[in-house]
Amino acid sequence: MLKQDLVYKQKDCLGLDIGASSIKIVQLKKKKNLTKLVGYESRKLPDNLVIEGIISEPKTVAELIKKMMTEVKEGKFTAEKVIASIPDTNVFIRVLELPNLSGKELKEAVMWEADQSIPMAPTDLVVDFQVLGPSAGKDDMNDVLLVAAPRAIVNSYVQLFQFLGLKPEAIEMSLSAVIRALISNKEKNEVMLVADIGAKSTNFGVYDNALRFSDSVDFGGDAFTGSIAKSFGVSEEQAEEKKIGTGLHDQKILDAVKSDLANFESEIKKVIRYHDERTNEERRITKIILCGGSANVPGLTEYLAEKSGLEVKIGNPWVNIDTYPLKQVPKKEAPAFANAIGLSLRGILEADS
């Protein structure tokens, strides 16, 4: 989405994931039939540098990223172009049902729908779309993915790239990148819910050969941490250790976050119900994949599997990547790199197409 054409075609691309509390960078390259890891790095992001999706201080963020690139602990960064993502909480996403139209007619129809359904002036938006394929049970209609991002957010990223001296290949929504990294060839014909659990928010995406639906909620891992800190009378740092240590296997911790879990479970069921009521029985959701920095809470997959009646697993974005000779990412941190991996993968896939 939001593709920018370049004069040259270089395969390697930095995948840049700027989250609410951290920045992650990944560079991959293609070597014969292997996807090789060139380098990866993660750093905490100070507060108030990103406000409602806008990089408020692009020069300061650029300095932090430059430091990450020169002080990278594993591998190196050599790419001159970058693909970044905008959090789905700051993106307007709609799946439209439209008749078969020519290129110009389709663009006009999408822009009309954007004007009708998005509460912002068209001049304040960057709009893109993708034809997903035939609508379920409607041969004469197509599902069309409409994506619109506030121009102020996109412009702040463009300014960041200028400070970095990198050429932007694309800016896309984070769920598209996450799905690219997580869905294996064996799973590509399945229908599943992907939950990208960040510190402050969670992005939900329904995958059915492509991203068909998305939603975002202002709920993330910090909510669990806060409830544990309050219940146990400990600091946020100590609560975080408890959360990622024994997690929900500890009954006292389970009791402390019971209300948060109920809210999270309710949001998941709401997304599943919305999708399943609008599709054929054979295309209903059968699996939930968790990823993001807050996905690895011990006991969370078992809890959600019991409550939803579906298979639930932690997504592993590294499974098809050859990391040798670099040190592998610790297991508990691995899901947090899904977005950055998916972004870098896009550069490789587009160069090969």
Automatic annotation (TrEMBL):
- Superkingdom, taxonomy of origin: Bacteria
| Entries under InterPro entries matching the protein | ATPase_NBD, FtsA/MreB, PilM
Which Pfam family is one of those matched by this entry?
A: PilM_2
Can you name this protein?
A: Type IV pilus assembly protein PilM
Organism, per UniProt?
candidate division WS5 bacterium
